[in-house]
């Protein structure tokens, strides 16, 4: 096999790394220059009688660039991260830019004091420089990420990837990689055990050989990434497989399976000098529970007050569109499996469940005209702000199901009832990842359990923002 493609990829990555650094330096320079100009123009604060010449601020500018870029490097913001959320990336950029600006403000007085480079760096100018630095850097990074995504979609800047294993885990991984070319992976094939069926394939991915062929295949196909996608019951040779993959600059990733699935964030505790790994530590308790409840109350009050005119208009349209009540009050399972009355706008005919409960399907004839729009935009869920305010629900959490469905799911889906360890939510981690409507309940459950065991206030805020963006941009194809 030829090595030309990896060489070209190396050159592209070098150019992209230079571009990213150039964008950051340009953003920080522009922010400092604009902050200097804003100090003497914007009327938000007292304007100075006379500003020092900008050339006198060049040492401070260089210190600012060096400090912020150094923090970006320490924070691994120049390290390639394929599937990082825009929100997480923006938070990291904002944090590093903020700390860097503060450090520059403090250090410039110490470093340049009693030297030819000493100059007054007023707090107002520091404020402007900080704001513009964060804003311009975010814009530059967004441009860079969009450019890199477009290149990867065109087959540029991709890593050759080899999947080790077959079965559901390997099929799911192959399917997700093929569905997201922006991740930058080019699947060259899969490697299976000697007793596996040689004619099998994973979403069209060819089987290239067996485990002993790994070293040869990595060299022959210039593989840069290896994903070991084996179920826990087939991991007797895991250490041996990793050893065979350790060739050159090959990145090795292992599907976590049930251990990490149960663990969430691993913590090491000490028991009289004996280390213990915590594999089950409920995230929501103590002050964290109070913090989440505070966010729920604030969000519910804010939503009910400012959305009340639109909620009243919606109620009027429902009454004009079809006969029946405006609201649908339905029993759902919540915290600890306790039932509660969930409130939502009615979106179906009054006799929709005359023959018993049933899942809503695409183009369901039971849905009313206004109900179709309400369901597509998730606006029918807004009355649940009342449930949040009284404490039945949270803004974010596992979506509640009806008792009849809970009884079915808990019999065939492992750990299903563990999602009821927290309050049900108006939206959740599964929903913002497209798992709603007629999608896999088992997959939804895994997302819900991950949320329960990895909760943070930032995660809740991120889910709320993503849900709002999905509604505004009409990205949720499973809302019907």
Features:
480 residues, alpha/beta, Rossmann fold, 3 domains, 5-stranded parallel sheet, 12% strand, disordered N terminus
- Element pattern in H and E: HHHHEHEEHEHEHEEHEEHHEHEHHH
Average pLDDT number = 81
In angstroms, what separates the terminal alpha carbons?
Answer: 48 Å
What's the β-strand tally? Answer: 11
Approximate strand percentage: 5-15%
Helix content: 40-55%
Largest sheet: 5 strands, parallel
- Treating each run of at least 4 consecutive H or I residues as one helix, how many helices? 15
Structural class: alpha/beta
> What are the segments in which pLDDT stays under 50 over at least 5 consecutive residues?
1-7, 258-265
Query: How many distinct folded domains?
Result: 3
Structural summary, described in words:
- This protein is α/β, with parallel strands linked by helices and 480 residues long.
- The protein has three domains: 4-153, no CATH class; 159-255, Rossmann fold (3-Layer(aba) Sandwich); 287-473, no CATH class.
- Helices cover 50% and strands 12% of the residues.
- It has 15 helices and eleven strands.
- The protein has helices at 4-39, 58-74, 86-111, 123-153, 168-179, 214-220, 238-245, 257-263, 287-321, 369-377, 384-390, 403-412, 429-432, 441-453, 457-473; strands at 159-164, 185-192, 207-210, 225-228, 251-254, 267-271, 274-278, 327-333, 339-345, 394-396, 425-427.
- Strands 3-2-1-4-5 form a five-stranded parallel β-sheet, sandwiched between helices. Strands 6-7 form a two-stranded antiparallel sheet.
- α1 (4-39) packs across α2 (58-74).
- Mean pLDDT is 81; it is low at 1-7 and 258-265.
């Amino acid at each position: 096999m030829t090595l030309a493609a990896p060489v070209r990829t190396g050159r592209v990555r070098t150019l992209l790394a230079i571009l990213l650094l150039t964008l950051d330096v340009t953003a920080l320079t522009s922010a400092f220059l604009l902050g200097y100009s804003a100090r003497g123009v914007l009327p938000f604060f007292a304007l100075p009688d006379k500003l020092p010449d900008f050339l006198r601020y060049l040492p401070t500018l260089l210190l600012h660039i060096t400090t912020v870029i150094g923090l970006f490097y320490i924070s691994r913001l120049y390290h390639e991260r394929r599937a990082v959320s825009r929100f997480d990336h923006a938070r990291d950029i904002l944090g590093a830019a903020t700390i860097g600006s503060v450090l520059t403000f403090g250090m410039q007085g110490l470093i340049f004091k009693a030297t030819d480079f000493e100059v007054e760096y007023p707090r107002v100018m520091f404020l402007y420089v900080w704001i513009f630095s964060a804003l311009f850097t975010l814009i530059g990074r967004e441009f860079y990420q969009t450019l890199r995504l477009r290149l990867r979609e065109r087959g540029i800047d991709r890593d050759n990837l080899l999947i080790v294993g077959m079965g559901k885990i390997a099929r799911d991984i192959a399917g997700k990689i093929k569905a997201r070319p922006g991740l930058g992976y080019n699947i060259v094939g899969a490697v299976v055990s000697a007793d596996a069926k040689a004619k099998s394939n994973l979403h069209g991915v060819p089987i290239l050989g067996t485990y002993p062929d790994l070293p040869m295949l990595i060299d022959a196909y210039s593989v840069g990434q290896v994903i070991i996608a084996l179920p826990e019951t087939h991991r007797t040779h895991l250490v041996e497989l990793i050893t065979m993959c350790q060739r050159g600059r090959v990145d090795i990733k292992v599907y976590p399976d049930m251990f990490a699935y149960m663990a969430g964030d691993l913590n090491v505790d000490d028991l009289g000098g004996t280390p213990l790994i915590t594999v089950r530590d409920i995230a929501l308790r103590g002050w964290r529970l109070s913090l989440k409840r505070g966010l729920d109350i604030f969000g519910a009050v804010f939503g009910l007050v400012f959305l009340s005119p639109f909620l009243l208009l919606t109620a009027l349209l429902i009454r004009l569109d079809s006969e029946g009540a405006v609201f649908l009050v339905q029993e759902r399972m919540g915290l600890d499996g306790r039932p509660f009355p969930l409130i939502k706008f009615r979106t179906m005919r009054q006799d929709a469940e005359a023959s018993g409960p049933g899942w809503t399907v695409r183009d369901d004839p039971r849905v009313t005209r206004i109900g179709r729009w309400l369901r597509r935009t998730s606006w029918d869920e807004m009355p649940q702000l009342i449930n949040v305010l009284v404490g039945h629900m949270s803004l974010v959490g596992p979506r509640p199901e009806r008792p009849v469905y809970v009884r079915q799911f808990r019999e065939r889906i492992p750990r299903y009832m563990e999602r009821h360890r927290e309050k049900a939510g108006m939206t959740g981690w599964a929903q913002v990842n497209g798992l709603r409507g007629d999608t896999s309940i088992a997959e939804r459950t895994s997302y819900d359990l991950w949320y329960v065991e990895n909760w943070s206030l930032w995660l809740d805020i991120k889910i709320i923002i993503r849900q709002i963006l999905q509604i505004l941009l009409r990205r949720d194809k499973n809302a019907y």
